[in-house]
Design goal:
Layout (H helix, E strand, L loop, with lengths): L2 H22 L1 H15 L12 H14 L1 H4 L14 H8 L4 H11 L10 H14 L13 H5 L10 H11 L11 H14 L1 H4 L14 H8 L4 H11 L10 H14 L13 H4 L9
Bound molecules: heme C (2 copies).
Length: 288
């Protein structure tokens, strides 16, 4: 599988995953927005696989017939005709587009017979030049439309792997480590907990021996690798003991926020919603 195919799959998966979250909730969407905006910034670069192997091979044939007399078979030039690879290439074309290169070559080369080849032959030759400058091939041919070519930028350096890893990490589903409730909400939850739960689970959340502890090892054991939605639903369906589902969804979300806070998960900028679809996307993981 080519890097480009892989990138495309990852990107599609990321967008699908994000779309689900966005459709489910504005609150979670806010968490993910910076990454989503970046994924749309899809400006192609010569590092994305802008031509095919086959096209570059065709381009090599055309280059040998039309260009190699002056620029030589090794593309290093004859002293008058310049080199078309290496530092000379970078110096001339870095940060310009493949469209700029296509237009310049077509307008002036072969010397003495400019624009004498078909647009497709020029696109093939440009593909060959990209290949000889170590830019990767991909799944789609380099087109001849200038508008499309102008969108492909000749970056000298490949995209930083660190940036890709970061984008991947941001694309992952949210967890309780992402700040999924606010400090204010946890404070409201504390009040509700004291009124509705503390009689049995006690003010320190360690339980009375019959009602279990809601923090520490007992919390991890019961909730690790489940979702906040699972916890919300279980509490609402059974608690307060004797009066299940007697509080508002908002009050349950506030109490869950308080329980998360007491288990040392960080607060964030957006409140924990009471929408189960959204809560189901937030995973409880004991490790960050
Ligand atoms: C008859 C000799 C000759 C042939 C054939 C020839 N070139 Fe050139 N080429 C030159 C010379 C001389 C220059 C430098 C002067 C100039 O830019 O016109 C040059 C310049 C260039 C440049 C730099 C242009 C720029 O804007 O900086 C490129 C790229 C290039 N040639 C590509 C090609 C390609 C691709 C072909 C084949 C389609 C080709 N040349 C065929 C002689 C030739
Ligand atoms: C009248 C006593 C009592 C009150 C009030 C009470 N609980 Fe419980 N709770 C229990 C007992 C007993 C259990 C263990 C048996 C069970 O799971 O039903 C329990 C179990 C739990 C569990 C574990 C459930 C599971 O699926 O593992 C959670 C979480 C919980 N309570 C949270 C709360 C919260 C939050 C409140 C306040 C909204 C609350 N409880 C109010 C007695 C109480």
């Amino acid at each position: 599988m080519t890097t480009r195919t892989l990138n495309r799959i990852l990107r599609t998966r990321t967008i699908t995953r994000r779309f689900r979250a966005v459709a489910a909730s504005a609150a979670v969407a806010i968490l993910l927005l910076p990454a989503a905006a970046r994924a749309q910034d899809d400006a192609t670069s010569v590092w994305d696989g802008a031509y095919t192997e086959e096209q570059a091979t065709r381009g090599e044939g055309a280059y040998e017939r039309e260009c190699a007399t002056c620029h030589l078979a090794d593309l290093l030039g004859d002293g008058i005709a310049p080199a078309l690879v290496g530092p000379a290439f970078d110096f001339r074309w870095s940060d310009l587009s493949v469209g700029d290169m296509f237009v310049a070559i077509r307008a002036t080369m072969p010397q003495g017979a400019p624009a004498s080849l078909s647009p497709r032959a020029y696109a093939d030759i440009v593909s060959y030049l990209l290949q000889r400058n170590d830019f990767p091939a991909g799944d789609n041919e380099l087109p001849t439309e200038e508008a499309a070519l102008n969108a492909v930028i000749i970056h000298r350096e490949p995209p930083a792997p660190a940036a890709e890893a970061e984008a991947e990490a941001e694309a992952a589903d949210p967890t309780v480590w992402d700040g999924v409730f606010t400090a204010e909400q946890a404070t409201r939850g504390e009040g509700a907990y004291e009124r509705e739960c503390a009689t049995c689970h006690l003010a320190d959340l360690l339980g009375d021996g019959i009602a279990p502890a809601l923090t520490g090892a007992a919390f991890d054991f019961r909730w690790s690798d489940l979702s906040v939605g699972d916890m919300f639903v279980a509490i609402r369906a059974t608690m307060p003991q004797g009066a299940p589902a007697s509080l508002s969804p908002q009050a349950y979300a506030d109490i869950v926020s308080y329980v998360l806070q007491r288990n040392d998960f960080p607060a964030g900028d957006a409140e924990l919603p009471s929408d189960e679809a959204v809560l189901n996307t937030i995973m409880i993981t004991s490790e960050q």
